[in-house]
């Protein structure tokens, strides 16, 4: 006969865990409807988590792309003041910004690496027998660098073109598609704006939608001077639609904004109790709008996710308590043949986690489909990441573990004799 | 070498509300290795209570119980579980198989909690089933087996871990005479060929006749303890 040594409660072996998982699957497949209903909360919860994360990430990615399309570390200064509600007033009325402001800013603030300016108007553009009403921007060459425009062919116009008010133009993808036949060469072609002929010297690379949802590729750039003298017909020479500036470091943006504000206020002779007659915006402000909308949705989904996971967890706990009661005798038998508390505990925890993981798996599918439907129906950008799926899985696992603990512990603490006697 | 089982002044007292039931009242008992013991006595005399204590399923209210030289009267639950797993096999009146689980898996259960390779566990469980004459029934569920066959699965489960003692509480209580004989023949064989100590509770004298020692209980005490020549098949 072997001598019995007091065995310390070892962690269950992998073979034990494997067989227990298989047993759990068998037991759950016996009660498919019950298991399915129990999992529903987890399915919805995990689905919401996935949808939440992918909408959040999609929105963030979209904002990043839009900020990037704007150019890095860009400051936009527009005429007109900002009211409390954030709406600019007085725009287009008083002429408040000029080219002189831009050159002065560059001189005064060492933080600004470059300044540029632009003025825009919607014009009729004609190519042969085709025409298109689209925005035409008269810009300084520096504007193109600040806004980070690149070219699929050709290149930007130069300072010399500015000085001579050359009739050259850069064309955006949307404008090009509307003015030229597919395959027709745009480079070097001559188009007419307000009957003034312009030669196309550059085709711009596409940028997509802006943060405000406008098509940034529906555009045409001409030298500012040419626009001012030959196309727009300004009353005040030197007045601009907007000023642009950039810094080398994004950390310098807040300070640069303050410099600009002070300089412009001084130049415009604004008293201490007068509001700014211009509005300064940076990439940070532009991201905000989009983010706040997607945040509302995220908060909503977070609420749905937490409530469903809670309800799902309670469902799992409930079904496990029923299962422990139904299988009291089985627990007694297992204990009689040598199951330790840790074995019984593990068995029911594994059952709980199998339930919640299955729920999680279905939830992931529901979440992915939900996110894609969101993109399809609402046009929200979504991004499904491995990170989101992993998070959801960990969540469902944690829910199973947490809510399984009480019933599993209840089973493990049964007295073997009482469990065996249970009818 | 110490005797396998030594009980000194074993008491078991149940309390239900204000009522106190003395199920065991000072049992003294020594059982040597290889004995085949039958416990008889009227209903409620404490036979099952004693079996459960000896089988480490329960613990005494008072007194000392040494199993194989180890004092288990105050042992922790996990040590008791380990003893049940390695030293002890149980056969119950109502079989107590896990429903909707194959005969093989039922027989495998003690090894499952002992650990080790699944393949080896299966092999041993199949061997145990063969031993009790159930070769070919490995994949049957309990509900697909007769009472006698179910009890044989239970015996396979009890012997699969090569225990020192096998406890059988009225193992033939739910069976007809033919099945009872088959079960008793298996137990007798395990005692004779494998030297497994067998402790059996029964109400039937012809079942008790298989044993080499007969205890009679009354009101929670052993009132009679008789050793006799081993049973010769065909007494009935
Ligand atoms: N869990 C319990 N709670 C209260 N009293 C109990 C409990 N278990 C047993 N008893 C009491 O202890 C006494 C002995 O019971 P036990 O089951 O040991 O009798 P037994 O000899 O096995 O009877 P039977 O031949 O009917 O199986 C009985 O009076 C019974 O009512
Ligand atoms: Mg009894």
Write the layout of secondary structure elements.
The complex is a heterodimer of chains A (423) and B (236).
Chain A lengths: L13 H17 L1 H39 L3 E6 L1 E2 L5 E2 L9 H10 L3 E16 L2 E10 L1 H6 L4 E4 L4 H5 L4 E4 L1 H7 L10 E4 L2 E9 L15 E4 H9 L9 E6 L5 H15 L10 E5 H44 L1 H9 L4 H38 L7 H27 L3 H6 L2
Parallel strand pairs in A: 5-10, 7-9
Antiparallel strand pairs in A: 1-11, 1-12, 2-3, 4-5, 4-8, 4-11, 6-9, 7-10, 8-9
Helix pairs in contact in A: 1-11, 2-9, 2-11, 2-12, 3-8, 9-11, 9-12, 11-12
Chain B lengths: L4 E12 L2 E13 L4 E6 L5 H8 L7 E6 L2 E2 L5 H10 L1 E4 L11 H12 L3 H14 L15 H13 L5 E5 L7 H18 L2 E5 L3 H4 L4 E6 L2 E7 L9
Parallel strand pairs in B: 3-8, 3-9, 6-7, 7-8
Antiparallel strand pairs in B: 1-2, 1-4, 4-5, 9-10
Helix pairs in contact in B: 3-4, 3-5, 4-5, 5-6
Adenosine-5'-triphosphate binds next to strand 1, strand 2 and helix 1 of chain B.
Task: Give a verbal description of the structure.
The complex is a heterodimer of chains A (423) and B (236). Chain A has helices at residues 14-30, 32-70, 99-108, 141-146, 159-163, 173-179, 224-232, 253-267, 283-326, 328-336, 341-378, 386-412, 416-421, and strands spanning 74-79, 81-82, 88-89, 112-127, 130-139, 151-154, 168-171, 190-193, 196-204, 220-223, 242-247, 278-282. Chain A is of the alpha+beta class and 423 residues long. Chain A folds into two domains: 13-65 and 289-421, no CATH class; 81-276, no CATH class. A six-stranded mixed β-barrel of chain A has the order 4-5-10-7-9-8. The longest helix of chain A has 44 residues, at 283-326. The radius of gyration of chain A is 33 Å and the shape is elongated. Residues 1-12 and 88-93 of chain A have low confidence and may be disordered. With 236 residues, chain B is α/β, with parallel strands linked by helices. Chain B has a domain at 97-162. In chain B, the strands form two sheets. A six-stranded mixed β-sheet of chain B has the order 6-7-8-3-9-10, sandwiched between helices. In chain B, strands 2-1-4-5 form a four-stranded antiparallel β-sheet, with helices on one face. In chain B, strand 4 (62-67) and strand 5 (70-71) form a beta hairpin. The interface between A and B is medium-sized, with 32 and 38 residues. The structure holds adenosine-5'-triphosphate and magnesium ion.
